[in-house]
DNA sequence: GATGAATGAGATTTCATTCAT
DNA sequence: CATGAATGAAATCTCATTCAT
């Protein structure tokens, strides 16, 4: 009634048991979203899935929003971690292939969660900021790669690296989503191959000193 | 949503005034979704935006779902109509440019609405079917175009037309959506240029008898 | 979920039926508070008492707080209106008697509601302001009366009118509360007599040109 | 509140540490009520203020009600103890002054706590009885004092001692509470002076053999 | 048809109390 | 004894849908 929150602001759990429950709720929350979508994402569903009582939810999270933010953060971290390409890989085309393969592999579920948030019901400023950060990570990384190739004389110098990264990154992102939704099961490895060839051709990638642009 | 209905089934409006109200509600509904997302899409908001009383909603629509279906249908029709490229345009590259320009111009918001439905709370079989149809329209059209170019010896014959269409179509679709969400204002015409060059390069489009793949 | 209120902000009812329901809810709310105290003041109890459904509460009031504010406002208005002493009454002592009689008569229930708010669970800034206003009304009126008597040479000139009004007003206010709570039934008219004599003696009120301070 | 209890009944603390914790909780509880009112009075807030863990609450108190009763009892004891006027003080007016000074000094907050209980959410028979006792103590003491003065010919014999004590006691009590709530800071000593003069004049107190009723 | 009030099941959140460690 | 996590009934609020006028 018009008064400030009087309830205990949830604090980080101090005991092992507390941490277990806390983590279980995040895992359960993610699972609920993935399986039942927005409509199913209720504190009740989450606690039931985690096997704890209703009230326990608010021992660890201020609100549904709060849990959502943490789920998104976790999904984003996971996506980014899993889609990093090792520095030891030198060949530009191989790097493209690897990046695409990892992206498609990594983003099945995580991307689904992120999309749901993006186009779903609830977007406060915190979440919007989080999503923009994630996008910026991918766009920036893609633009850097393109710029390096241009500087090495390996890619079309007329392309704006950032616009190109937005476009080609969008291609891969969108394909990742479609794969998870299409009825027709796509051969993922074949799609990785196509995406890589399209990406390479699009930026005019050529093997140093070679006439052929992409491996046959 | 999903409650049994006991309401009189709304009938198609018979008077001119009825049709006007009906259409105004669809327009208002679309506007509400675009501007306020799912959270704002309530009968209350829609009727207020349309300037009619609350109860009028159910004079014309069985339910929120019902209106949603009609909004999606309208958005899809509009997208498809506006993104058709006239047959009179012969030059392949010019057709690509034109298709991309029209897509970006016409469909940013419509695509956003479709995405929302896709990832939003409510996806009944009707809606899912509708979305698949729309996607199939674009993918099919893109694949046909690529296949024709391949047959004419103007595009890389090693590419699977369908996979390629999914990937490149996804690129344009994703860019269309992103443009409306990014903080940085993109120069649309420059983006059209980039998308077109990327698309053309990606499929190895070459002007008949020319060495250069894309216009400078 | 972190979004602004999307629900219709309740608007003043436009139809007669609406006004009836609105008023019934305020009456019911007041009755619930008086009879069951804070613990019983729930939207459910209020709507049941008013004979409407639960949801109707939020057709007219933004929140429990909102209704509470209106109840307090109504109680205050009622108290103030009923405790006004007609200007036609000239004799100072008679005015004191009349003011006390009206105060005790008027404030049984209203004062109970106000006390509950004051010492009860919920005091946001709006309510606090409202209560201060009410108090100020009584203190100001009392101080004015005392000052006038002092200027007419009818009351002890050494008294600070404001402090005196706070003290004597508090006396009457407190007695009003006690009357409603004590087991022992007090003779109200006798109490009015005592309060008036105490008040008059306290300020040294003397009839013009008379030795006796108060009527026997 | 009002739930059946299955908890082990807390036992009186046996160790020094136990007593310290027990007392700290009562002090903290009182502080919480005074500062944050009913809304803030939660086991959580009390234990935090006392610097002990949540669960410890129920080591010492059966319930919130239980703590409340002890707080009220402590506040009452304190009020009564601190407002006792030493028997060595003989002069009637000086006794009035001293009683008022002590009451204002000691009991503003305690009185507020008692009021809160009175008008707050929870009033079981135990509490009600306690409050009536406290009131009776003050009313009885006041009435006795007035009766003695009347018998000594020092006060208006027409006044009903009990009614007068209720009224004048209410005056002081109310002022004590109001002082803590008013925006305008009152000069307490000046208020003591006024209260005393008003009280004395009201009962017609006159110094034996003196014409002036109250010190100038 | 249009209007706006009414409905009530369901979602979110609170918090006094209990319990495992 | 102390700790802090767990519990769940009850409170507040939402909103798609229905209904009386």
Keywords, separated by commas or semicolons:
DNA-binding transcription factor activity (chains A, B, C, D); 216 residues; 2 domains; Arc Repressor Mutant, subunit A; Tet_transcr_reg_TetR-rel_C_sf (chains A, B, C, D); DNA-binding; mainly alpha; homotetramer; elongated; 8 helices; Tetracycline Repressor, domain 2
Q: So what's the oligomer here?
A: homotetramer
Write the element-wise H/E pattern of chain A from the N-terminal end onward: HHHHHHHH
The overall pLDDT average of chain A reads 86
**Name given to the CATH homologous superfamily of the largest domain in chain A:** Tetracycline Repressor, domain 2
CATH architecture descriptor name of the largest domain in chain A? Orthogonal Bundle
Protein name (chains A, B, C, D): TetR family transcriptional regulator
Keywords (chains A, B, C, D): DNA-binding, Transcription, Transcription regulation
Region (Disordered) (chains A, B, C, D): 1-20
DNA-binding region (chains A, B, C, D): 42-61
Explain this structure to me?
The structure is a homotetramer of 216-residue chains. With 216 residues, chain A is mainly α. Chain A has two domains: 16-61, Homeodomain-like (Arc Repressor Mutant, subunit A), CATH 1.10.10.60; 71-202, Tetracycline Repressor, domain 2 (Orthogonal Bundle), CATH 1.10.357. The first copy, chain A, is 68% helix and 0% strand. The first copy, chain A, is built from eight helices and no strands. Chain A has helices at 16-40, 43-50, 57-60, 64-82, 92-119, 125-151, 161-181, 188-202. The first copy, chain A, starts with 15 loop residues before the first helix and ends in a 14-residue tail after the last helix. In chain A, 37% of the residues are buried. The model of chain A is unreliable at 1-5 and 209-213 (pLDDT under 50). Chain B binds chain C through residues 39-40, 42, 44-45, and chain C through 1, 3, 6-8. Chains A, B, C, D: GO terms for molecular function: DNA-binding transcription factor activity; transcription cis-regulatory region binding. Chains A, B, C, D: Residues 42-61 bind DNA. Chains A, B, C, D: Residues 1-16 have a biased composition (Low complexity). Chains A, B, C, D: It comes from Actinoplanes xinjiangensis. Chains A, B, C, D: Keywords: DNA-binding, Transcription, Transcription regulation.
């Amino acid at each position: 009634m018009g008064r400030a929150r009087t309830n205990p602001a949830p604090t980080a759990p101090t005991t092992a048991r507390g941490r277990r429950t806390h983590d279980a709720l995040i895992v359960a929350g993610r699972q609920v979203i993935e399986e039942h979508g927005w409509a199913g994402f209720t504190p009740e569903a989450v606690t039931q899935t985690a096997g704890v009582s209703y009230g326990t939810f608010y021992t660890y999270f201020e609100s549904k929003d709060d849990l959502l933010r943490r789920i998104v953060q976790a999904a984003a971290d996971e996506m980014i971690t899993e889609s990093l390409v090792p520095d030891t890989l030198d060949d530009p085309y191989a790097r493209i292939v690897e990046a695409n393969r990892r992206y498609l592999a990594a983003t099945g579920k995580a991307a689904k969660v992120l999309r749901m948030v993006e186009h779903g019901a609830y977007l406060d400023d915190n979440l919007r900021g989080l999503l923009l950060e994630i996008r910026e990570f991918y766009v920036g990384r893609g633009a850097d790669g393109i710029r390096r190739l241009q500087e090495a004389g390996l890619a079309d110098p007329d392309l704006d690296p950032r616009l190109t990264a937005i476009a080609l990154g969008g291609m891969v992102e969108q394909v990742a989503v479609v794969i998870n939704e299409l009825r027709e099961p796509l051969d993922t490895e074949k799609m990785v191959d196509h995406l890589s060839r399209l990406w390479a051709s699009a930026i005019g990638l050529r093997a140093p000193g070679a006439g052929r642009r992409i491996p046959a």
